[in-house]
Amino acid sequence: MVSGNPPRHEVYRLLESHTATGSRRKAVDTFLVLLIVANAGVVLFDDALAAGPHWRPWLIAFEYLSVGLFTVEYLCRLWVAVDSEDVHGVSAFRARLHYIVSPAGLIDLIAIVPFYFGMLLTLDLRYLRLLRLFWLLKLTRFSPALQSLAAAFYQERRSFLGALLIVMVLLMTSATAMHLLERDAQPEAFGTVLDSMWWAIITLTTVGYGDVVPHTGLGKAFGGICALLGLCMFALPAGIMASAFVEQIKRRDFVVNAKLVSQVPLFTGVGVMRMVEIATMLKPRTVPPLYTVVRQGDSADCMYFVLSGELEVQLEPKPVYLKAGDFFGEMGLLDRAPRVATVTAVTDTQLLVLEESDFHTLMRAHPEMRATIEAAAAARRAAPQPADRPLAPRSRVEPEPAL
Ligand code: CMP
């Protein structure tokens, strides 16, 4: 990563950074997603929209504007590739090359290049317009779910190749056998192995158009076996994909959690194994401004760690504000008592939520964390509380040997 160019780094944070959040980053992402979806809509309804002649110039203008904006986007991404978190200690040229040949970079490039070729070589613009559907691939960048799907596919590529090989063998065998069994009865449909292939594909994939069916007794019996085999064989890739997808999602959630957990001061320096344990317990949650996270008097079932943003603890005579690195909701859990105050988000706020049962497990396993949290709670108890605060009993987290 090469740094030292503030405007470029700012553009990087707006466009590319994995860690940057905030409303401006969200606005850029939303704008690009809407532009892509609007263009896909225009392609789908192109004929209907163009039926009114006054629409045509607007559609063309929109297309040119979109290509222009995507070109600016591509050039910006190329410019800021130098700041990428994925490339370390390489020259600016290599960092940019890395972006150009990355799957996302290639999709960005292929999305714009045909239009410039079309303009230069005066190709048929109707086909070029259809290419805008290709822009939908750009959505992968904005959808973690699509990224997980692509990662799942890549992770299971060998299993897919194996399954594909079996499917090919099955197709060839079925087509050949049916050709031998049915060629005399139906020379037009099963005259050659290649002709029979249509029947084999439609039967093994369980689509079954029914335009070509076996007529002989043996052909029908073999056709039945093929249909059953198809059911098993074509379900295999779907199963591989589904389990790999779930695994990817779990892995991604874990990595996201681990990254977030490492930002909480209380958990820094706990060691990798402990971090893994804690990451599985905490659930990220984002709340908007004015959202009441806990309400005074409600029963307590979790505590919260603040990752970003600001919250207000409504206390008399004046409120207390919590920010990144703080935690709250611990008093209700420690005391097994109702919430002593209402806590409301002031800005967009990122939290990590720790459920009650996990809280007690963690407190038992980490006496040093318990001591820190109890000390904070004790200091808060000593501070002024709302007038109708319920009496807080003593801490009831039984100290037990570490897990
Ligand atoms: P709990 O009672 O579970 O829910 C309300 C939370 O507000 C409480 O836990 C504390 O985490 C927090 N809180 C209460 N008093 C203070 C204070 N004086 N300063 C900061 N936070 C507080």
Short description:
With 403 residues, the chain is α+β, with helices and mostly antiparallel strands. The protein has helices spanning 6-15, 23-44, 46-51, 56-80, 92-101, 103-121, 125-130, 144-155, 157-182, 187-190, 193-204, 217-261, 272-281, 330-335, 356-365, 367-382, and strands at 282-287, 292-294, 302-308, 310-314, 320-323, 327-328, 342-345, 349-355. Helix 2 (23-44) crosses helix 4 (56-80) and helix 12 packs across helix 13 (272-281).
What report would you give on this structure?
By secondary structure, the chain is α+β, with helices and mostly antiparallel strands. It has 3 domains: about 140 residues, Up-down Bundle (Four Helix Bundle (Hemerythrin (Met), subunit A)), CATH 1.20.120; about 100 residues, Helix Hairpins (Orthogonal Bundle), CATH 1.10.287; about 120 residues, Jelly Rolls, CATH 2.60.120. Helix content is about 60%, strand content about 10%. The protein contains 16 helices and 8 strands. The strands form 2 sheets. A 4-stranded antiparallel sheet has the order 1-8-3-6. The two termini are about 40 Å apart. The C terminus is likely disordered. The site of adenosine-3',5'-cyclic-monophosphate (CMP) has 16 residues, from α14.
